[in-house]
Amino acid sequence: MRLSLATKVFIAFAGVTIVFSAVVMFGVERTQSLYGQLRAINQRIVPLGLQLSDVQNDLRSFHVVLNERDPAVLRRSLQLTRLLNALPENLDEELGEAALLADFSELEEVPAAQSEAFASILRDLRALQTRGAEFSKAASAFTTQVLRERPQGSELSASISETQTELSAEARALDNRLTQLRAELRVATDQALTRADDAERSSVYALGALSLAALAVALLVLILIVWTLRPLTTLAQAARRIGEGDYRPLPTPSTRMGQDEVALLTAEFNAMAHSLAERDARLRSQHAALLKSERLATIGRMTSLITHELRNPLSSINLNVEMLAEALQERGIDASDEDIRPLLETVIEEVDRLRDITEEYLTYARLPSPKTQPENLDDIVQGLIDFHHWEWSQHGVEVIVTIDNAPLEVDVDANQIRQALLNLIKNAVEASSPGDAIVVSVTRVEGVARVAIEDQGEGIRPEALERLFEPFFSTKSQGTGLGLPMTQQILEEHGGQLSVESDLGEGTRFCFELPLSSPH
After folding, report:
1. Are 298 and 42 in contact (CB under 8 A)?
2. pLDDT at 437
3. Long-range contacts for 354-357 (Cβ within 8 Å, ≥24 apart)?
């Protein structure tokens, strides 16, 4: 599956958004839970404590009234008590309100352990409410009886006194029970506050840990995005390198999720760089060939002009030397005299040498385009060596020929190929010492015919090897420096190429290749 770069970035940011949303939702949930617990404490537990405190205070006030033994004071106290707080008639109602506050069954925010504690308080309150109802009924009857009865003297009647004692004992028992309930409520309240504090602390820790985890995820996503986009910087640097002529390809980034836009862009960039490198190489080659062609054309024109200007004077010098020899003889001077003959021969030899040089210049300047036709390269090589074998043997050099059994047919101008091969073998002979051997091998290599000439001479210096095919450059004192350039030009015009390998003290190896003829 291949994911685009935009999809990867979207998935990364969606993941970060989901993680942070989960952290926020967790924080909201824990905050709401903590808020519910605090709301239950504020709206239920605190009012419940106040309600129980009010009930107990009212009950204690009524208990004080019950302890009064003076009938007149008791009568006025009961009237005032009923007028102010309707005690004892409303005791069961106030305990019922307290029971409603203690009912946490419908509150989901209250933890189970806390609900169980308040359920126990609720059961005790309902039991106390039942007792309170009975106490209220008895107290109401007692109040009615006291208010209706007209006591004689300062003593209460026996029945009222007995009822007063019973109600006082019951009020004291109810007060004790309310004290116990308030103590249980304080314990439950402390536990609720402790749980709320623990919940707050754990929420802070959990939110901190989740926030750190979310930041770690965000940092990881950022690193992944930077890692994914990093090849773009490399592409920009490579583009600058291409502007400077450096066409090295970039490594294609690999990803487990397939090839994204960066990888495809890198592949296209490498293809572009390869095309530019090939085009630049072709342009450089064409430019070099053009420069070489212009240089050779200029050299050709110069050599043609020089040759033209030298040939006539050389012919005149040669003719005048011959006329001088005849004039000396006519005057009775022997031209073969030991003092005269060496001078005349030296002049003639130098004239012949200069004529040979001018002929070589002229040949190089007027090298015609090859007229190719199918030829057997084996026959050309073997025929040339057979023809010059005696000449080379006079130098004490043996030329050894090795030719493949299969005939090698090439489309060439036979005369020009003979000239090129002759130049190479002559150079090898001149570089060899008497007793050395020159090996000429003709082989077929990967669709081309290869001819190699190896000598056992002193070799060529590296600095001279670089300039070996430049016109007029020669390592020989009497060389014109045109033999190898002309040979290279002949082979290139035949679609071949010439190369040289040489090590000082180990000889030199010239090798040229020609394309084989296409089968008919």
Report:
1. no
2. 92
3. 354/310, 354/314, 355/311, 355/314, 355/318, 357/480
